[in-house]
Amino acid sequence: MSSVVPTRKTSPPEMASIAKDPAGKNNNKDTIPEDLNIPDNYVAWALKNQKELPPVTWDNLFQNINWISLLALTITPSIAIWGVFNVKLRTATLVWSIIYYFITGLGITAGYHRLWAHRSYNASKPLQYFLAVAGAGAVEGSIKWWSRGHRAHHRYTDTELDPYNAHKGFWWAHIGWMIIKARRKPGVADVSDLSKNEVVRWQHRWYVYLLLACGFLLPTLVAGLGWGDWLGGFVFAGAGRLTFVHHSTFCVNSLAHWLGETPFDDKHTPRDHMITAFMTIGEGYHNFHHQFPMDYRNAIKWYQYDPTKWFIWTMQQLGLASHLKVFPENEVRKGQLTMQLKKLRELQDGVTWAPEVQQLPIISWESFQEQSAKRPLIVVAGHIHDVADFLDEHPGGRHLLTKQIGKDATTAFFGGVYDHSNAAHNLLSMMRVGVLHGGHQHGLQDKAIPPSQRLRVARYNELTGSPYASSAWSDGEGMLS
Ligand SMILES: [Zn+2]
Ligand SMILES: [Zn+2]
């Protein structure tokens, strides 16, 4: 296999399976940032030059299965399912299984994910050891291996260099990427900071023993020594709990890239959803997370479910965690506002507006009066309106309109006779057929612009040349169409 980095001889950390994760064999050489010498066009370079394995077909499927991962991910739930039908579930064991689910789950979410992969806060040594041990009990590979993959996921989200590229389908992102050997290596991501961390090194070195001890032995021992339920401890707190922890965290790669809203950005697949948050101990606000990955929070509202955030905050109160990173509120709001404006723009584009001033002919007063003899034209705020279709619809009666034909009704319209509603003003603007030459000074600008158009969502390249400041008001004589 060729190296990810073209200018270095050392090969990057193995794209290992869950259980194949190397136990401390390639330390110390990785203290130089992995991505120090990558070309500026790395993504294009990697996609072009790095070999891709041939597609998986029925013929080569057998050789392309990652058997250790497959067995780990099938035997564990099989034991749990067998236990459901053959082992009595005792209340104490059930409670212990749920508690241990949260302990090992937090090892991944608060430890592997927010502490090590994203450095979103600092943890004291005791807390680090606790999270490293708890995380090992979730049987998802060592901190170092896991974080390397996760950093690549953030860096190359939704591309071929993303190890759990959501564009390859829900099940690929959920579990397929672990069971089928990857067609190409994940993009380069530096974990040299983790190589220097003594807790991460310790966990990497003893990973296989920690996995067995925390994944199966400890949950069995607690139930066995605690209340004599050895088999129940193994089946429910061990295998059953592990199955839930697995699929709970796998949902961050699948469900969180598939279900929900994009309140902060819609460039990539990550989404926010309460259901995903409940499934993943609070990692369900994934749209926020991909925008602000170094924030220790996933949920920014107090009522949103994010126990991982509550855990980190509590650790801070206990003096075990510090430097909790929070992205500037002002920048978070920019993202939210952009997405809201985008939605409003769609709404705006679905509405029919009054004709633009530039599209209307400029008519002299004399011409206006002449043409008023043939059709019901009324001037309001510098604009000429054809009210033919509205005469019988006018709530104040036909007579109030007919007496204004060929005249300037601005004063009457704006309160002289009746102070028309915004809706009436908007509707009037739809009847515009011309602009009165020299008529604009007659009304203030806010009378010429319909209320619905005073605030509009404009793209950056639409901001210049407001129609009311353009040459549309220059001298000219036109005919109404
Ligand atoms: Zn993601
Ligand atoms: Zn992340």
TrEMBL record:
Q: Which domain of life is it from?
A: Eukaryota
Which residues, by range, are in coiled-coil regions? none
- A GO BP entry: unsaturated fatty acid biosynthetic process
Enumerate the spans annotated as Cytochrome b5 heme-binding domain.
378-437
What keywords appear on the UniProt entry? Electron transport, Fatty acid biosynthesis, Fatty acid metabolism, Heme, Iron, Lipid biosynthesis, Lipid metabolism, Membrane, Metal-binding, Oxidoreductase, Transmembrane, Transmembrane helix, Transport
List the biased-composition ranges (Polar residues). 1-10
* Annotated protein name in UniProt: Acyl-CoA desaturase
Q: What is its main location?
A: membrane
Name any one GO molecular function: stearoyl-CoA 9-desaturase activity
Q: Which free-text remark accompanies the cofactor?
A: Expected to bind 2 Fe(2+) ions per subunit.
- Which InterPro entries does this one have? Acyl-CoA_deSatase_haem/ster-bd, Acyl-CoA_DS, Cyt_B5-like_heme/steroid-bd, Cyt_B5-like_heme/steroid_sf, Cyt_B5_heme-BS, FA_desaturase_dom, FADS-1_CS
Q: Which PANTHER family match?
A: ACYL-COA DESATURASE, DESATURASE 1, ISOFORM A-RELATED
Q: Does the keyword Transmembrane helix apply?
A: yes
Q: What is its EC number?
A: 1.14.19.1
Record Pfam families: Cyt-b5 (PF00173), FA_desaturase (PF00487)
